[in-house]
Write a structure and sequence with these properties.
Elements lengths: L2 H22 L4 H10 L3 H22 L2 H4 L1 H20 L3
Helix pairs in contact: 1-2
């Protein structure tokens, strides 16, 4: 794997832990702001996010041609096959 990708994932995990601690701390200004402003609206925001995601995917599906609708499975199979072949070439035997 690429070291840059691993470093980015590790940084995202650390940032997530730090933000979570700040949000859950009522003594922290960010935590007070989150609990007073965002937390009451969170159920509606999550519902809106999932609804918007569904509508985008529905629009992509409806506007795609018949050939392209069934093409996604083949694209994923081809991608997984190429990734698997790439691992075989990189590993020493």
């Amino acid at each position: 794997m690429d070291w840059l990708f691993l470093a980015l994932m590790a940084a995202l995990v650390v940032a997530g832990v730090i933000i979570r601690r700040k949000v859950r701390n009522p003594e922290d200004p960010f935590g007070r702001w989150f609990q007073s402003r965002v937390q009451p609206r969170l159920p509606g925001l999550l519902t809106g996010f999932f609804l918007a995601t569904f509508l985008v995917w529905a629009a992509v599906y409806v506007t795609a041609s018949e050939e392209d609708r069934g093409n996604l499975t083949q694209a994923f199979k081809g991608w997984f096959k190429s990734v698997g072949e790439g691992e075989d070439k990189e590993s020493p035997k």
